[in-house]
């Protein structure tokens, strides 16, 4: 069949609207998966390969791609932490796994649990560990080499469902540096663009891909003329793929990912993923759910606004606000203390349970809630519509709407 004949439809999470039904082509996927598995992961025919994943994540497709390279693949159906946090290390020992792929949060959880897999299990066959899904912190790199094995290749990938591959990742020929992805993947012309659309080195910018990659989608399902496809990736820089992440390309070629460019908290040049913020806020028994939005744009700091849903029987009073601010100041930094804290009846989420920071941010900057996200993709559209009352508060402290929402009578 033709090189670009549709192979499958995979779906994005829908955090910025209706989940994108992404069609990849046979030829592009075969090339990309063979390249990544054979060159970046250094896997060889006969090796045993596994990646902990659900069937709804692109890593399941990627794991199945291991068969292309003559690998024995191990599929695991169950929790990564049941009956204990060491479940995947036991899996690796039981099956003589050569390459163990996991989500970065799993390695962090093992580190926090004080596990010592290298002492507890026979991991003599293990040559490499892959990490993806979110940035892997430097301390987790150190833990792997101290508590798992000192002579393996720890490789952090960043990519996306959109391409069903990584565009920056590990390389067996380069040194491993804590907190740093080794570099661009083969055939991936990745750059960090500044506000003027120029490539920059040593500073954070928009992650873009300036030349086509084989596994870029052949289109979206039911997208006549490719209108939605072009709007999703090429609206900011015509002819250049904008992925929606912040990246820093270091002078030596290494890369650091800072999360979604529209959702990452950027406070005085200190960039932080929202997960760390939520971990601190939702550690309070009085908080049932929360959402944080940084209204700033790349290169210009905005306001940091925290929305909380109190737990049953609790109330967002001045005492709770003060304790929240004190905890965030101590656990994160003074720069990450919210400018505003509001009580809301619910937190907007997709049908798959992901928080909608980006649509709320768009609403704060004046977009109508009905345009910020497709109601059909939301667990409760009325929750997102509620945030319309904060519309315009992204403009700054002098916004009339913001003054109204933060007045004592509210």
Write structural notes for this entry.
The structure is a single chain. Helix content is 26%, strand content 23%. By secondary structure, it is an alpha/beta fold. The protein folds into 2 domains: 6-187, Rossmann fold, CATH 3.40.50; 265-405, GMP Synthetase, Chain A, domain 3 (2-Layer Sandwich). The strands form 6 sheets. The protein has a 5-stranded parallel β-sheet. The chain has a 4-stranded antiparallel β-sheet with strand order 11-12-14-15, with no helix packed on it.
By secondary-structure content and strand pairing, the structural class works out as: alpha/beta
Q: Specify the helix fraction band.
A: 25-40%
Give the name of the CATH architecture of the largest domain. 3-Layer(aba) Sandwich
The domain tally reads 2
Molecular shape? globular
Low-confidence stretches: 396-410
Count of helical stretches: 13
Radius of gyration, CA atoms, in whole angstroms: 22 Å
Largest sheet: 5 strands, parallel
| Mean pLDDT over the residues | 87
Full CATH superfamily name of the largest domain:
ANL, N-terminal domain
- Give the oligomeric state of the chains in this entry, treating copies of one chain as homo and distinct chains as hetero: single chain
User: Strand tally, please?
Assistant: 20
């Amino acid at each position: 069949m033709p090189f670009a004949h549709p192979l499958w439809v995979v779906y994005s999470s829908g955090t910025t609207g209706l989940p994108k039904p992404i069609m990849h082509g046979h030829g592009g996927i075969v090339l990309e998966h063979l390249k990544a598995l054979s060159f970046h992961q250094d896997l060889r025919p006969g090796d045993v390969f596994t990646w902990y994943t659900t069937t709804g994540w692109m890593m399941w497709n990627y794991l199945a791609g291991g068969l292309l390279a003559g690998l024995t693949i191990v599929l695991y159906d169950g929790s990564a932490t049941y009956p204990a946090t060491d479940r995947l290390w036991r899996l690796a020992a039981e099956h003589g796994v050569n390459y163990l792929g996991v989500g970065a949060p799993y390695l962090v959880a093992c580190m926090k649990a004080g596990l010592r897999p290298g002492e507890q299990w026979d991991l003599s066959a293990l040559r490499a560990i892959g990490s993806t899904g979110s940035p892997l912190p430097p301390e987790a790199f150190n833990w792997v080499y101290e508590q798992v094995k000192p002579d393996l290749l720890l490789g952090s990938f960043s990519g996306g469902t959109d391409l069903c591959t990584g565009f920056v990742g590990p390389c067996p020929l380069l040194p491993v540096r804590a907190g740093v992805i080794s570099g661009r993947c083969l055939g991936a012309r990745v750059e960090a663009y500044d506000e003027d659309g120029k490539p920059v080195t040593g500073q954070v910018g928009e992650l873009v891909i300036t030349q086509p990659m084989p596994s870029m989608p052949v289109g979206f399902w039911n997208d006549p003329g490719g209108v939605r496809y072009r709007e999703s990736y090429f609206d900011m820089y015509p002819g250049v793929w904008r992925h929606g992440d912040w990246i820093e390309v270091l002078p030596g070629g290494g890369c650091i990912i800072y999360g979604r460019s529209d959702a990452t908290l950027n406070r005085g040049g200190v960039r932080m993923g929202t997960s760390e913020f939520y971990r601190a806020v939702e550690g309070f028994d009085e908080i049932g759910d929360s959402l944080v939005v940084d209204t700033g744009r790349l290169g210009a700091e905005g306001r940091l606004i925290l929305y909380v849903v109190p737990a049953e029987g609790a109330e967002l009073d001045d005492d709770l606000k003060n304790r929240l601010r004190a905890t965030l100041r101590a656990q994160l930094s003074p720069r990450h203390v919210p400018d505003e804290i509001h009580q809301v009846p619910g937190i907007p989420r997709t049908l798959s349970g992901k928080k909608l920071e980006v649509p709320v941010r768009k609403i704060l900057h004046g977009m109508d809630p009905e345009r910020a996200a497709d109601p059909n993709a939301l667990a409760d559209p009325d929750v997102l519509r509620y945030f319309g009352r904060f519309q315009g508060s992204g403009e700054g402290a002098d916004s009339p709407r913001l003054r109204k929402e933060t007045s004592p009578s509210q």
